[in-house]
Write a structure and sequence with these properties.
The structure holds 2 protein chains of 2 kinds. Chain A is 6% helix and 26% strand. By secondary structure, chain A is mainly β. In chain A, the strands form 2 sheets. In chain A, strands 2, 3, 4, 5, 6 and 9 form a 6-stranded antiparallel sheet that branches. Chain A has a 4-stranded antiparallel sheet with strand order 1-10-7-8, with no helix packed on it. Classes of the chains: A mainly beta, B alpha+beta.
């Protein structure tokens, strides 16, 4: 929580926490679901409509959304003989909608999450894909890391966890040896393939996202 | 068109603002900052952003606002965002071919210019 949970709370404190393009402190700029205020459970007292009654004390304990990547997910089916079904936001091809906010905290690492989606079917195994900043490559914050998606009611839509060799410098698996790779792409399919590599002895497998179709709606991702 | 010739000034405001320390939950005071983007040569608006000092997402929020401002300036200069976009700090035409490597990449997305050949592994 980044605003105090009690005591005096000024308009300027709200503006300074969430950021503002205007010198006028206009609370309707900060309705839940806006560019500045997302659907975190800590923001549940803030109304979602600009026409609803909004007050300074709605902002006790409220939090800016910059540690969480969020956006409205979609679905896409490629069709054809080996159709692939996508759910989520931010795939590289542009089948799915783009994220609204891509800045995120993963463990203690400040980075970006520009894509969070599930792909299944065709020649692919069912898998999660996360597109992140390049600083996630060989970074221990990505090891056994749990990513959880939450909806607008701050209810969990599901989680997945990377394996214990994700985010390490394991280089014995050839082309699929690192995940996230040097571009910051985490691919659960590659993570699974690494389990057969020598440096993966005794490692824990990645867990899959339980109900991928849940990502066909607004969701934010928490990874810390 | 290159929009990169602008200055950013950061001015502390007089009134202190409060926030909760994320580790302890204790209420702390900080100075609110006014950040201004002013272009040195083009006749475009001077635009601001307000945020407290040492905000954990200071860089991200300022980068986000800067992108927004570059897009505002692009429209003020008469460029239609349906046909133009900001790439870096430069206004570029959507879909314009700048060099041959783009064509190569469309024809053969995984060509040797983007994927290095690897040795065949032994099973």
């Amino acid at each position: 929580m980044t605003l105090p949970s009690s005591g005096a709370l000024s308009y300027n404190s709200i503006r300074a926490e969430f950021g503002s393009p205007s010198s006028n402190v206009n609370l309707s700029l900060y309705v839940r679901g806006s560019q500045y205020t997302t659907y975190l459970s800590s923001n549940s007292n803030i109304p979602t409509s600009a026409t609803a009654e909004i007050a300074v004390n709605d902002f006790y304990g409220a939090e800016g959304g910059s540690n969480y990547a969020f956006g409205t997910g979609g679905s896409h089916n490629t069709g054809g003989k080996n159709a692939i079904q996508y759910y989520g936001w931010g795939d590289a091809t542009g089948f799915l909608p783009t994220a609204q906010n891509t800045s995120a905290l993963i463990g203690s690492l400040t980075t970006t999450i520009s894509g969070f989606y599930h792909a299944a079917g065709g020649v692919l195994s069912s898998k999660m894909v996360v597109r992140m900043g390049t600083n996630t490559n060989q970074n221990s914050n990505l090891t056994s890391r749990t990513f959880t998606a939450f909806n607008t009611s701050a209810s969990s839509l599901g989680s997945f966890t990377t394996s214990s060799i994700a985010g390490t410098s394991c280089t014995t698996g050839g082309a699929f040896s690192e995940t996230p790779n040097s571009s910051g792409l985490y691919n659960q399919g590659s993570d699974d393939l690494n389990q057969g590599a020598p440096c993966a002895a005794g490692s824990t497998m990645a867990t899959n996202f339980p109900t991928p179709s849940n990502l066909n709606q607004y969701f934010y991702v928490k990874a810390f | 068109m290159d929009l990169s010739d602008f200055e950013i000034t950061i001015e502390p405001l007089n009134e202190k603002v409060t926030h909760a320390n994320p580790s302890t939950g204790e209420t702390e005071e900080a100075v609110e900052m006014k950040i201004t983007w002013k272009h040195n040569t083009l006749d475009v608006s001077e635009l601001n952003f307000y945020l407290r000092e040492n905000h954990v997402n200071w860089n991200d929020k300022l980068n986000m606002r800067e992108q927004e401002i570059l897009n505002i300036w692009m429209e003020e200069l008469g460029y239609d965002k349906q046909y133009y976009k900001i790439s870096g700090k430069i206004i570029t035409e959507n879909g314009k071919i700048e060099d041959d490597s783009q064509v190569e990449n469309w024809l053969k997305p995984n060509g040797i210019q983007s994927v290095e050949p690897t040795d065949v592994g032994e099973i």
